[in-house]
Amino acid sequence: MWKKATAPLDRSPFSRPGSLREYLPPFHQQLDGEAAAAAAHELRETITAAVQDAPAAMLLGTSPSPDGRARGSAVLEARDLCKSFGRGPALTPILKNIDLQIFSGEFVALVGPSGSGKSTLLSILGLLEPPTSGDVLISQKSVTQLSRRQLARVRGRTIGYVFQSFNLLAGLSVVENVMLPGLLAGESGRAGYDRAITLLDQFGLASFAKRVPAELSGGEQQRVAIARALFMAPDVILADEPTGNLDTKNGRKVIDALNELNSSGQTIVLVTHDRSIADAAPRLISLRDGRIEADSGTIQTNGKATWRTGN
Fold it and tell me: CA 282, CA 278: separation in Å to the nearest integer?
């Protein structure tokens, strides 16, 4: 349930003339003014960043590779990445000198025992939290010097997220949840609605557009979350245990959906405890005690197919 908003209703992106609400069919009027205002209030910082900041590509500064050579088409990279929590005697290192490149079109599975640092690594690669030291590069450009607002801009434009707990907004309909990334970027209207419906239809969920998340199964909610992650056509999708809260049948549907996306060229990085999922991934990276223990190798791509090298 949304808490009461402190922002005036007329500042809500849902209620501005020519915005999202004007173009939605009547069933979306179930989202009352207070809920819409509250949604806008809680998302205000990201909305402001997306609307006011420069385009994402202009925010990223070029960062050459350590050896001065081109690194190919890496869409996501970690260089000497370290992360620790706590201070002094309580300092706990989580990630230790991680070097990693993710290339366009890859499907990469990150595995490791609990506490190995895989979810922390995914959060840092996704710009959700900063490293203690080291660098993250998006499309071969460093994000180290970006402000919080600039990071929000880059994050919203280049990275799609799929979380274990779905993270759908209970007060919004299914189609409104899918449209949220566009709203954060200052986009709304009929075109956004049509795109959301198209994405839902891709996952067999268009008939559920009017429903709220609580009326869907866990597997259906996760597929809505994937559709939301795709809304801004991101360079890479990061999925943190996307089947962790699902039974085997629904988990299989989610993995099939991700595989289909990858077959069409979408870059995907997935964290999982499920060894059957990991073993089927084209590229498998194992972490242990904050370090990369094994990497099955860079993926070669050819058209719509991806496969491991050297296996």
Answer: 9
Name the residue among 187, 186, 157 with its Cα closest to residue 48.
Answer: 186
* 162 inside domain: yes
**Alpha carbon distance 68, 81 (integer Å):** 19
Q: Per DSSP, which regions of 198-243 are E strands?
A: 236-240
Report the share of the chain in percent with pLDDT over 90. Answer: 59
The CATH number for 244's domain is 3.40.50.300
Long-range contacts of 17-25 (CB under 8 A, 24+ apart): 18/188, 18/189, 19/188, 19/189, 20/176, 20/179, 20/183, 20/188, 20/189, 20/192, 20/193, 22/189, 23/188, 23/189, 23/190, 23/192, 23/193, 24/175, 24/176, 24/193
- Which residue bears the tokens 């099955």? 296
Nearest to 183 by CA among 54, 58, 44, 27: 44
Given this model, what pLDDT does residue 31 score?
41
- The pLDDT score that the predictor gives to residue 298 is 60
Q: How many domains does the chain have?
A: 1
On whether residue 20 sits in a domain, the answer given is no
> Tell me, what's the pLDDT at 6?
35
User: DSSP code of 269?
Assistant: E
Q: Which amino acid appears at position 76 of this protein?
A: L
299: which 2 tokens? 């993926």
Instruction: Report DSSP letters for 287-306, one per residue.
Output: EETTEEEEE--PPEEETTEE
Residue 10 in domain: no
In whole angstroms, give the CA distance from residue 302 to residue 308. Answer: 12
pLDDT < 50 regions, the chain: 1-33, 35-36, 39-55, 57-58, 62-71, 300-311
| Residue 187, pLDDT score | 78
Total-model pTM? 0.74
